[in-house]
Amino acid sequence: MSNVLSSILEVSQVSKTFRNEQGDTHVLDSIDLAVKEGDFTTVIGPSGCGKSTLLKIIAGLDLDYDGEILLKGKRVERPSQEKGFIFQEPRLFPWLTVEQNIAADLSLKNQETRDGVNRLIELVKLSGFEKAYPRQLSGGMSQRVAIARALLRRPEVLLLDEPFGALDAFTRSHMQEALLDIWQTNKTAMVLVTHDIDEAVFLSTRVVVMDRRPGRVKSIVPIDLPYPRKRTSRSFTELRTHVLDELDHREEQEAYSI
Ligand SMILES: Nc1ncnc2c1ncn2[C@@H]1O[C@H](COP(=O)(O)OP(=O)(O)OP(=O)(O)O)[C@@H](O)[C@H]1O
Ligand SMILES: [Mg+2]
Questions:
Q1: Ligand 1: which atom is nearest the Cα of residue 25?
Q2: What separation in Å is there between the alpha carbon of 148 and the centre of ligand 1?
Q3: Nearest-5° angle of CA 47, CA 51, CA 52?
Q4: CB atoms within 10 A of CB 194
Q5: Of the candidates 81, 123, 177, 199, which lies 20 to 30 Å from 140 by C-alpha distance?
């Protein structure tokens, strides 16, 4: 494992069992993961292997687990603004405008908040839509509002659970470029869950491949390609095949888009 001191996020021996009347479900088993400043980590694995569960635990949304999670050396005990969470669907307030959604509980009358909101509207390329309502936005635009809202809180790490899953291919590729741009400008560490191997290789500095029942880290594939990446390059195709090979079961491979 990498040096604890240089890690922003340290997941150590995290295990999780859901208990209910039907019995116990052991979902995560001894997960170790260290995220360093500037890392773009993508997590892939078969449906039900515990990716969302792991992300929620890291976010502090689920505190019932074994093991330890440290954010900048401090134990995660609750949700906090140091960890931005982006869900598959954007979860905006329909009665608030774009700028109000980004500010959310912060007042736009505060100059620092106002400046931050304006900077982020520019960063996520929504200039001109400050006063628009969610119903007037496309799926990709709504997701950019959600990302801006998370970034306004200056998170140490942004946790994204299949954020582009519901978008069409064109919007999705546009959002991938936007996310890379944000990552390179803000240097926020990213932890992204996706079902799309192409997306994983295009975006991240390494891909964490999970196994299921119970969910374990099967392997970590470093993606050592310079940005911007070319999907058609030989090294890109080779890495994509390598990640696909790591997902061992045929049916699971087929469920993945490449
Ligand atoms: N609240 C819960 N109670 C009981 N079991 C749960 C609960 N939430 C999740 N599970 C179980 O935990 C396992 C992992 O679920 P999780 O949603 O983390 O998987 P995932 O890897 O995100 O899957 P997907 O790729 O389909 O989103 C599944 O078997 C699921 O049924
Ligand atoms: Mg999930």
A1: 5
A2: 27
A3: 100
A4: 24
A5: 81
Q: How remote is the CA of residue 23 from the centroid of ligand 2, in Å?
A: 21
At 29-48, the pLDDT tens digits run: 999 999 999 899 999 999 99
Distances (CA, A) of 239 to 165, 179, 192, 209, 217: 22, 21, 18, 13, 18
What percent of the chain has pLDDT above 70?
Answer: 94
Residue closest by Cα to atom 28 of ligand 1: 48
Give strand ranges (E) for 151-251.
157-161, 189-193, 206-211, 216-222
214 cis-preceded (ω within 30 degrees of 0): yes
Mean pLDDT value of segment 199-219: 95
DSSP annotation of 214 reads T
End-to-end CA distance of the chain: 29
Residue 50 in this model has a pLDDT that exceeds 50: yes
Q: What residues line ligand 1, using a CB cutoff of 6 Å?
A: 18, 20, 25, 27, 47-53
pLDDT band at 161 (very low <50, low <70, confident <90, very high): very high
- Spatial CA neighbour of 41 closest among 11, 67, 64, 66: 11
Q: Give distance in angstroms: CA of 5 to centre of ligand 1.
A: 32
Residue nearest to atom 16 of ligand 1 (CA): 50
Residue 216 C-alpha to ligand 1 middle, in angstroms? Answer: 14
What's the farthest any 2 CA atoms get from each other in the chain? Answer: 55
- Provide the pLDDT for residue 78: 84
pTM of the prediction? 0.91
Nearest ligand to the C-alpha of residue 48? 1
